[in-house]
Amino acid sequence: xxxxxxxxxxxxxxxxxxxxxxxxxxxxxxxxxxxxxxxxxxxxxxxxxxxxxxxxxxxxxxxxxxxxxxxxxxxxxxxxxxxxxxxxxxxxxxxxxxxxxxxxxxxxxxxxxxxxxxxxxxxxxxxxxxxxxxxxxxxxxxxxxxxxxxxxxxxxxxxxxxxxxxxxxxxxxxxxxxxxxxxxxxxxxxxxx
Length: 193
Description:
Blueprint: H1 2-11, H2 14-51, H3 54-71, E1 77-78, E2 84-85, H4 87-96, H5 98-115, H6 121-139, H7 142-155, H8 163-178
Antiparallel strand pairs: 1-2
Helix pairs in contact: 5-6, 5-8, 6-8
């Protein structure tokens, strides 16, 4: 056996050693790639688990917003279900011009609500509030933006709080277009849109 290895080693030249080195490097690389694949598979499983918590986080976010609105001295919306505008919310809507804004942007905003696939009146309310919150600053023109900032400052509100007024008005317009009564929000376990 020793003689065979000696004869082979005499026959080997530098190119064979390079090929052997490449073979070993390739095997090592494949081993490392397999480890990375396993690591990414594990991370994907963690991400999938986190995505299922999205609805819970959204619900908590909305509850926190309602609690915050309920503790304000001048809340814009009443935190009972269904959500309705307070005197301050109606005043903000008139001063900033949310009805004009909604007439101009209704198609865009209602399509964004529909993308969230609401199944009933309650889902429409939740999606409307979410869309209004996410797209509030993008739908305001320069004049409305200035009025909103001035109003928020004068009332001691956060600028973002005004999005809830737009959310309620958006929900009402969507309900009107679908022939749904606002009172149906509380019947979300029974009816579907």
